[in-house]
Amino acid sequence: MSGNKRLPPWLTKPLSDPTKVRRVKETLSAFHLNTVCDEARCPNRVDCFTRGTATFMILGDQCTRDCRFCAVRHGRPSPPDPSEPGRVADGAAALGLRFIVLTSVTRDDLPDGGASHFVETIRAVREALPGSGVEVLVPDFEGCEQDVGVVLSAAPDVFGHNVETVRRLYPEVRTGADYDRSLDVLRQAVRSGSARRVKSSLMVGLGETRAEIDETLLDLRGAGVEIAYIGQYLRPSDAHRPVERFVPPEEFEDIRSRALEMGFSWVSAGPFVRSSYEAERAVGERSCYSSEAMRP
Fold this sequence. Notes:
This protein has one domain (about 20-295): Alpha-Beta Barrel (TIM Barrel). The chain is built from 10 helices and 9 strands. It has helices spanning about 20-30, 35-40, 45-50, 85-95, 115-130, 145-150, 170-175, 180-190, 210-220, 250-260, and strands at about 55-60, 60-65, 75, 100-105, 135, 160, 195-205, 225-230, 265-270. It has a 7-stranded parallel β-sheet. The two termini are about 25 Å apart.
């Protein structure tokens, strides 16, 4: 979280159990797996590793886009690794996961944006872990309905695509993305009925107004999104977009209350909220880690 202004007191994390963190890291290393936890420098990664879980990032560790908020490396990715779906499934099994979250870098270089690779990974996970829940967090596939449909054909339990920020800030924050295109991806997922739940997430503290946050949430509800996650943007480095404001916890609670009034079935809002953090709770699944490790 280098490059941030002086952090307010509510943006602190308790110490972790290094033994549990080491176990997860060793498992990920053994199966040569990438996680968005590490690649995006998520502030919850130590917490999640302590709980014995992680969010798998497929299709490599280099993104074809270069968004100003994101720590994932930008560059020319390698071709998809056909062994990766199996390795993800084996890694999830080794960690004993019951709810698996899959995301990816954006792969505008691939004919299908990596959609078929998502499907292969979902199938491998379900074969290795029958009865497990699977959530996908996908890129926009440049708005290609066919590619979105390919992912939906695998019937993930949760289909996620993050709108990330408000409409006005898209040109500054989301290089190569389009606000309405992201809404269209979410609408397609809702119309298909293939996923049990459709989910999106946005960051605050990028310079948006409260009215714009409400407008974005209303747009998501209008698209049929049921699950919304709202968290504080934290600048990964001095090369990334600065934080404009640290939103206090009480304001997050107000945003959450307003979103629930709009009709979302689940809203998670808070300084450390991220779209894949404790994701299984939003769909009523059993925890992917022991109940003793759950936060109150």
